[in-house]
Amino acid sequence: MSAGLQKIESAVAFIKNLYKETPVVGIVLGSGLGSFIEEIKIEKEIAYADIPHFPVSTVKGHSGKLIFGELSGKKVVAMAGRFHYYEGYSTEEVVFPIRVMKYLGISTLLISNAAGGMNKTFKVGDLMIINDHISTLTINSLIGKNEDAFGTRFPDMSEPYRKDLIEKAQLIAVTANYEVKQGVYVGVTGPTFETRAEYKMLHILGGDAVGMSTVQEVIAAVHMGLPVFAMSVITDIGIREEENTITHEEVLQAAKDAEPKLTHIFKELIGAI
Ligand code: HPA
Hints:
273 residues; 23% strand; binds hypoxanthine
């Protein structure tokens, strides 16, 4: 067995010893979007620091534990705190929890993030269902020796975000009378926000929103054949006429404001899976 797979298996064995149920949905929450956790009827919390080989979170707004419990009648596992490449983690560390959740038994992965809007029809607080992504401006999380137990060397990426999950979420949004956008998420390394010229370029390249997470996680999930649904909260507008700057605090606040709608969609979607 490869060293990579061995690490996953020892983390999974540790967790299974503490929590006997099998979660069916895994949830990764973005910056400022952590209070979704309160929706879960919590059965077990395990600090990242306690799990063998698990990286530990450093960023403001991320707390660092796996949360197990029930939501909308399903067993779920949620990551309170995720790992970003810009923090200095290797891509293998960034996607480690995704692989652990897959080996714990999840059959669907839900991801949220905060993102900068580039589509001219977007405004702060909008929700965007990610229907595709551009990964070429960040580091591909599968670079390195392929672990055949996870998946093939050259994974197909024609549908990284499952159409059936997108359709279900759209229906949930329409029923709740929410206006929800769809679009292409561009993954970048960060940690700088983009310059005006960069936002313009990313838009020309086909991006509707840009962010510093998600893409590496989605690639690892698709590699393992794990269906993904992901949604962005538009926390700032990259392409704009007026002079204004973007701060992390502003991103967190916008995420907080949009969170109830995202929470509703995730909850209903989990129920419908
Ligand atoms: N750019 C990159 N990442 C982000 C942004 C942004 O404008 N907003 C939130 N995360």
